[in-house]
Amino acid sequence: MISGTNAIGSKSSKQGNKTFKTFNPKENKETEWTFYEASSNEIDEAVALATDAFKVYKDFSGAKKAEFLEAIADEIEALGDELIETYCKESGLPDGRARGERGRTMGQLRAFANLLKEGSWVEAVIEKAQPNREPMPKSDIRKMLFPLGPVVVFGASNFPLAFSTAGGDTASALAAGCPVIVKSHPMHAATGELVSSAIIKAAEKTGMPNGVFSNLNSSGIEVGQQLVKHPKVKAVGFTGSINGGTALYKLANERDEPIPVFAEMGSINPVVLLPSALENDGEAWATKYASSITMGAGQFCTNPGLVLGLKGAKLDSFINTLSEEILKLEPTCMLHPNIYAKYNEGKKELSAQKGITVTADYKKATNPNTAQPSILKVSGADFLANTKLHKEVFGPFSVVVECENALEMESILNHLEGQLTGTVLGSEDDLENNSGVVDALQSRVGRILFNGVPTGVEVNSSMVHGGPFPASTDARFTSVGTSAIKRWVRPVSYQDWPNKLLPLALQNENPLKITRLVEGEYTKN
Amino acid sequence: MISGTNAIGSKSSKQGNKTFKTFNPKENKETEWTFYEASSNEIDEAVALATDAFKVYKDFSGAKKAEFLEAIADEIEALGDELIETYCKESGLPDGRARGERGRTMGQLRAFANLLKEGSWVEAVIEKAQPNREPMPKSDIRKMLFPLGPVVVFGASNFPLAFSTAGGDTASALAAGCPVIVKSHPMHAATGELVSSAIIKAAEKTGMPNGVFSNLNSSGIEVGQQLVKHPKVKAVGFTGSINGGTALYKLANERDEPIPVFAEMGSINPVVLLPSALENDGEAWATKYASSITMGAGQFCTNPGLVLGLKGAKLDSFINTLSEEILKLEPTCMLHPNIYAKYNEGKKELSAQKGITVTADYKKATNPNTAQPSILKVSGADFLANTKLHKEVFGPFSVVVECENALEMESILNHLEGQLTGTVLGSEDDLENNSGVVDALQSRVGRILFNGVPTGVEVNSSMVHGGPFPASTDARFTSVGTSAIKRWVRPVSYQDWPNKLLPLALQNENPLKITRLVEGEYTKN
Question: In this structure, what are the phi and psi dihedrals at residue B451, rounded to the nearest 5 degrees?
Answer without folding.
Answer: 50, 60
